[in-house]
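Customer escalation, tier 2.

The customer says the design service returned an amino acid string that "doesn't look like it belongs to this structure." They asked us to rerun it and document both sides in this ticket. The original structure tokens are below, unchanged.
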């Protein structure tokens, strides 16, 4: 004991690290490297997300989109703004690569194209309250007549890309994935392990475990009697 204490005092006096301290120092340096990798990855994601869009000249078409519009007599009437406000709140938009908006469907073991019906929004009570319709609009809500209109879906802008940022990000992700560093990074940054919420379900104890069938039936019998008496 005296020799061990003297060795420890000598190590502390000479500032010589022990084997355990050296291993701990290497481990801490590795964790710091992981944190730097995580910060660099987050910074690259932020820069790519903030690149924004650039306008295309000329724009190109990618499929078709369809929505409801007002009738000609309603659109040219005095209350066009009123009805347009209602339609904007319940309108829907459908996208398709076909101009006729037909979809494939299997009928009698054959794939045929059928019409894809499109409807206005059918809000429930909570959604209807969120629409914030006035009393006048709510009274006419059921009477709105709508028609389909087909028009081209034009792409007017495209996401900007920086190949250097994307290459650096892909290289970092490849480095982290190949060495299985993602779980430890999550543990360092999110203060929790890398696991899914449903993994612990297999360890849940069943309430019927190690119980005989007679005990289970008696328990249900007495519970039913108590419910009938109450």
């Amino acid at each position: 004991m005296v020799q061990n204490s003297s060795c420890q005092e000598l190590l502390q006096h000479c500032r010589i690290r022990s084997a355990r301290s050296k291993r701990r120092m290497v481990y801490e340096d590795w964790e710091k490297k992981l944190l730097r990798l995580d910060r660099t990855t987050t910074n690259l994601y932020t820069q790519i997300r903030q690149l924004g869009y650039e306008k295309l000249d000329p724009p190109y078409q990618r499929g078709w989109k369809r929505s409801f519009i007002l009738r000609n007599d309603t659109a040219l009437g005095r209350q066009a703004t009123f009805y347009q406000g209602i339609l904007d709140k319940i309108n829907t938009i459908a996208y398709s690569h076909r101009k006729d908006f037909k979809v494939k469907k299997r009928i009698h073991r054959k794939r045929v194209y059928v019409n894809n019906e499109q409807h206005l929004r059918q809000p429930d009570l909570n959604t209807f309250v969120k629409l914030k319709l006035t009393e006048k609009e709510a009274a006419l809500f059921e009477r709105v007549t709508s028609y389909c209109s087909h028009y081209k879906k034009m792409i007017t802008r495209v996401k900007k890309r920086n190949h250097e940022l994307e290459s650096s990000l892909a290289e970092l992700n490849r480095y982290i994935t190949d060495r299985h560093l993602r779980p430890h990074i999550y543990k360092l940054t999110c203060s929790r392990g890398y696991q899914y919420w449903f993994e612990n379900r297999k360890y849940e104890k069943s309430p019927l475990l190690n119980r005989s069938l007679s005990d289970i039936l008696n328990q249900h019998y007495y519970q039913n009697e108590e419910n009938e008496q109450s």
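Tier 2 assessment: The sequence is consistent with the input. Residues 58 and 198 are 49 Å apart (CA to CA). The mean pLDDT is 82. Sent an explanation to the customer and offered a walkthrough call.
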